[in-house]
Amino acid sequence: MMLIELALAAAMAAQGAPERQSPPPPEATLRHFEACGAGQVSSRYDPDMREDIVEIAALPEATDEQLRCLVDTSLTDARLVSVTGSAEQRYRDIESAVLEERMLARARAWASERGLLDRVPHYAGDKEDDDIAFARKLEALCGRDARGAFHGHRLNIEWARRMAARGDPHKTADCLINVAILADFGIGIVGNEAFGE
Length: 197
Prior knowledge:
There is one protein chain. 48% of the residues lie in helices and 15% in strands. It is an alpha/beta fold. The chain folds into 2 domains: 2-17 and 108-196, no CATH class; 26-105, Beta Polymerase, domain 2 (2-Layer Sandwich). The strands form 2 sheets. The protein has a 3-stranded mixed sheet with strand order 1-2-3, covered by helices on one side. A 3-stranded mixed sheet has the order 4-5-6. Helix 1 (2-14) crosses helix 6 (157-165), helix 3 (64-76) crosses helix 4 and helix 4 (88-113) crosses helix 7. The longest helix is centred in the middle third of the chain and has 26 residues, at 88-113.
């Protein structure tokens, strides 16, 4: 799901949309991570990403609660985190679970506010549902502007660019992302190679 948000962000950036909110100063962020007690914390500037990355040499004995604290801090402080050491895989597993939990909660709240929660169909899997037909059901929930957004399990990046060019892609894109999450209809991106040009 994060690929979708990155694609939409890239399309919006090309149209001059505002950037995300700045994270706290690096010193404050390091103190937040250190408070988790999971290992040695440092920071380095990544010229490719154009931002500081928090590096954590995780202690092998770091508890799941300490690793969850690192995940929560990285999301709250909007910082990229690199965890090394034997606890790295546990950190990644916890991070994935937390992101999935937060996306699902956000999607439920979003759909509930708009009266869509009970209208979202559940994707039963490739054997029971025709992917294209199911994608069209999701698009129909999101209105006329959503037509053509999906190619089966793929989000059409050209559609995202057209929406960004219109000046307000969030309403329809939010709908598509949220109903896809609720339907358990995994989606990726078609055409993202254009971003490397």
